[in-house]
């Protein structure tokens, strides 16, 4: 018996249910499509567009039945993720150099496409196709042993659910925003303005709250019956698990540790994130877009927030949860978490670049026995380039921005607001900047003062 | 007279509910004003303010999950002992033998869900621009609630006292070691010294404050237990009260001006 079987009877049977649900969802969609989507020409005949969906739903139904009947012989079962796809995916994403680049670049491309193509994205059929595509990918991936090991961990199940919910809510936002943007352009009242009837809280709100509470309770109970809360071996301070991970909602922060030292990634940046969130209402002077969904009236604020939430927070959690394995190496979705996977890390500090490579000399020495003042001067000499660059980034750049690209913003915000705003933006961009520097130049620290635990 | 009418006309019933059933307009208004729990709400509201597609109901769900966590949490507290000797055993017993041990599952999944819903609530509030005047301050209260929700979840993570728990907390709390000035491996801690003696050491830095010891141990378990079961929930409950009060005082759910 294979100790790591890709398919077992249980998995095949479970996937049967998965496709059955997908079938039911698409059966409903057929009805909707029949009522709303109209007809298309096919070989000169008019057929309802819904017939395409009907075919697809029927196919799903058959796939589901095939799973139920085929579950007795999982080894011979044919519907599974093709090996070649898995190998290719693992070679790219699982590659220690290429993986993080591809992942991050992919999330940025997706993010930009989402905003640029939002008018297409919000067409219900497009949303439905995307949903089906991601569900099918999930279903097929579940036929892989290593994928299941991680995704089906009880503590990771909520993350998978979160991805779909975040996807849906983002779609919903764009649907409402694009609609309102059009209304504004055509001079029609906003959607929200058209729904202003006064209604009594009893019964309308109170009853929906009751239903909502019942649904949530039911979900929690069902979830509790289906999945046991995890309990591993008793705590043992002598046995460090590999990898050791923080709780999943902090994995974005743990991912930052790859690029920044703990004092930044673990203390300063989290504080800046929270302070920055609290500062939002006092920075955003734009009066528009209060109390209704819209994009164009506040595209800058929304894009910035979406950028922080989607690629920098949610995507980093996915990376940390699903792709980071032993020794914090990167692993493909379908890759076995091999403790011995080697990653050659040869990162260099900026000061080393400067003194060794560029000047062709030796590193200036810092004498540990000298007085603090002497040491400080010696360190300044060694790290001057990084210090100048960092100060330039955080101190010189904001006024330059105020005088050039952000002139109007500076004018409307005033000095203090603008300085807070520009520093928050720059700190937010510090993560992607360091990532790119790491990937492109193997840069370790811009300023490296290990003597004082002060590395940037 | 039917039994229902009999009960509703009894002195006991009338002492609790001071008006007839909310079946007509007048009594539907009265019920909102006289019931302690319902007076959180206004009497009437604009239809878009309660539309699911507008609020996603995420604030409400977060609040409900907080209540679920409180109730299941109190039940778990009757059973669980936060000591090195018993913590793990009690959790194991909850899984294997205890009647209603499912409370632990509900509590854990509810906690995960609450983290997610609080993010989504913030997401919605941002996307509808509801943090703009006059609701700036309530957004700030919200951010505090967000932090505290994460901290609640984080402190609870330790209590099962298994490998998952102590190592997640170790990884998380190791950060505190690097706190600028206040961590013994943070930049600038050397500056805090008195006559050549470092004030910030392994036994006195920010991480020590968090853990109550140099490593995650019994003192940490005790500290996290109190934070998780008493201190943070009290603060959260207070802030939620303020949050709701402000939603009303800032003019209800936001709407186009
Ligand atoms: C324990 C956490 C929280 C609870 C229980 C909670 C609960 C609620 C509820 C029930 C509402 C009414 C409207 C709705 O359901 O959307 C609301 C509104 C609001 N919340 Fe929260 N919330 C929490 C966290 C937050 C966070 C993290 C933020 C933002 C950072 C926030 C900011 C706001 C604002 C600005 C409003 C007014 C929205 C409007 O008028 O449209 N809240 N909150």
Report on this structure.
The complex is a heterodimer of chains A (456) and B (257). Chain A has helices at residues 9-36, 50-70, 83-93, 98-116, 118-121, 124-141, 145-151, 157-186, 191-194, 201-226, 251-256, 262-283, 299-323, 350-358, 372-403, 407-413, 415-441; strands at residues 39-42, 45-48, 198-200, 448-449, 454-455. Chain A is mainly α. Chain A has a domain at 350-455. In chain A, the strands form two sheets. In chain A, strands 1-2 form a two-stranded antiparallel ribbon. The longest helix of chain A is centred in the last third of the chain and has 32 residues, at 372-403. The two termini of chain A are 51 Å apart. Chain B has helices at residues 3-8, 11-16, 25-34, 52-55, 58-77, 87-96, 102-127, 136-158, 163-174, 206-211, 218-249, and strands at 44-46, 193-194, 197-198. Chain B has one domain: Cytochrome Bc1 Complex, Chain C, CATH 1.20.810.10. Chain B is 60% helix and 3% strand. In chain B, a hairpin with a 2-residue loop joins strand 2 (193-194) and strand 3 (197-198). The relative contact order of chain B is 0.10. Chain B is built from eleven helices and three strands, in the order H-H-H-E-H-H-H-H-H-H-E-E-H-H. The chains are: A mainly alpha (456), B mainly alpha (257). Chains A and B meet through helix 8, helix 9, strand 3, helix 10 and helix 12 of A and helix 3, strand 1, helix 4, helix 5 and helix 6 of B. Strand 3 (198-200) of chain A pairs antiparallel with strand 1 (44-46) of chain B, so a sheet runs across the interface. Bound molecules: protoporphyrin IX containing FE. Protoporphyrin IX containing FE binds at residues 55, 58-60, 62-63, 66, 118, 121-122, 125, 128, 130-131, 135, 138-139, 142-143, 145-146, 149, 240, 243, 247, 253-254 of chain B. Protoporphyrin IX containing FE (HEM) is lined by residues 55, 58-60, 62-63, 66, 118, 121-122, 125, 128, 130-131, 135, 138-139, 142-143, 145-146, 149, 240, 243, 247, 253-254 of chain B.
């Amino acid at each position: 018996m294979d100790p790591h079987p890709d398919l077992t009877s249980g998995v095949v049977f479970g996937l049967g249910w998965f496709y059955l649900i997908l079938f039911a969802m698409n059966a409903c969609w057929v009805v909707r499509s029949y009522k709303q989507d109209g007809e298309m020409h096919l070989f000169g005949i008019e057929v309802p567009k819904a017939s395409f969906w009907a075919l697809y739903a029927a196919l799903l139904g058959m796939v589901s039945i095939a799973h139920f009947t085929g579950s007795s012989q999982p080894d011979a079962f044919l519907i599974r993720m093709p090996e070649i796809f898995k190998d290719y995916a693992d070679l790219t994403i699982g590659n220690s150099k290429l993986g993080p680049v591809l992942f991050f670049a992919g999330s940025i491309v997706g993010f930009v496409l989402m905003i640029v193509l939002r008018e297409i994205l919000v067409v219900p059929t497009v949303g439905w196709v995307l949903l089906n595509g991601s569900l099918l990918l999930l279903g097929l991936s579940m036929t892989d042993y290593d994928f299941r090991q991680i995704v089906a961990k009880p503590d990771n199940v909520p993350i998978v659910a979160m991805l779909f919910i975040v996807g849906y809510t983002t779609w919903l936002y764009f649907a409402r925003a694009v609609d309102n943007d059009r209304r504004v352009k055509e001079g029609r009242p906003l959607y929200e303005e058209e729904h202003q009837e006064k209604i009594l809280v009893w019964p309308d709100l109170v009853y929906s709250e009751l239903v909502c509470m019942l649904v949530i309770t039911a979900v929690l109970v069902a979830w509790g019956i289906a999945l046991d809360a995890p309990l591993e071996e008793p705590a043992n301070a002598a046995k460090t698990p590999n990898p050791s991970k923080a709780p999943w909602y902090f994995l974005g922060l743990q991912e930052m540790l790859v690029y920044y030292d703990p004092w930044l990634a673990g203390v300063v940046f989290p504080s800046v994130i929270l302070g920055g969130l609290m500062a939002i209402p006092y920075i955003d002077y734009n009066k528009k877009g209060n109390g209704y969904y819209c994009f164009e009236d506040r595209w800058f604020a929304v894009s910035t927030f979406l950028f922080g939430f989607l690629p920098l927070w949610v995507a980093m959690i996915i990376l940390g949860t699903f792709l980071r394995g032993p020794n914090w190496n990167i692993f493909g979705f379908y890759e076995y978490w091999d403790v011995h996977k080697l990653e050659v890390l040869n990162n260099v500090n900026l000061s080393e670049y400067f003194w060794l490579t560029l000047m062709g000399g030796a590193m200036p020495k810092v004498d540990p026995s000298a007085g603090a003042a002497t040491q400080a001067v010696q360190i300044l000499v060694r790290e001057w380039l990084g210090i100048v660059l960092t100060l330039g980034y955080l101190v010189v750049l904001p006024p330059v921005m105020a005088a050039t690209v952000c002139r109007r913003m500076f004018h409307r915000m005033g000095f203090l607001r603008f300085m807070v705003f520009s520093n928050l933006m720059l700190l937010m961009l510090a993560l992607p900047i360091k990532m790119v520097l790491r990937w492109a130049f193997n840069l370790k620290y811009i300023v490296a003062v290990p003597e004082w635990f002060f590395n940037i | 007279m039917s039994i229902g009418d009999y009960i509703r006309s009894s002195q006991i019933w009338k002492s609790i509910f001071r008006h007839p059933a909310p079946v007509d307009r007048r009594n539907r208004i009265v019920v909102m004003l006289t019931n302690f729990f319902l007076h959180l709400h206004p009497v009437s509201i604009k239809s878009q303010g309660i539309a699911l597609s507008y609020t996603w109901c995420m604030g409400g769900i977060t609040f409900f999950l907080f209540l679920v966590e409180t109730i299941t949490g109190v039940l778990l507290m009757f059973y669980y002992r936060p000591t090195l000797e018993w913590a793990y055993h009690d959790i194991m017993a909850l899984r294997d033998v205890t009647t209603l041990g499912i409370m632990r599952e509900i509590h854990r999944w509810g906690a995960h869900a609450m983290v997610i819903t609080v993010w989504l609530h913030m997401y919605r509030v941002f996307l509808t621009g509801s943090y703009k005047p006059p609701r700036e301050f309530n957004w700030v209260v919200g951010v505090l609630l967000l932090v505290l929700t994460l901290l609640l979840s984080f402190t609870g993570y330790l209590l099962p006292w298994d490998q998952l728990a102590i190592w997640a907390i170790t990884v998380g709390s190791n950060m505190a070691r690097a706190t600028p000035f206040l961590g013994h491996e943070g930049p600038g801690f050397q500056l805090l010294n008195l006559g050549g003696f470092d004030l910030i050491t392994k036994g006195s830095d920010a991480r020590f404050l968090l853990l109550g010891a140099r490593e995650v141990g019994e003192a940490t378990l005790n500290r996290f237990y109190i934070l998780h079961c008493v201190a943070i929930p009290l603060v959260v409950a207070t802030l939620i009260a303020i949050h709701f009060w402000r939603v009303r005082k800032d003019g209800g759910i936001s709407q186009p001006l």
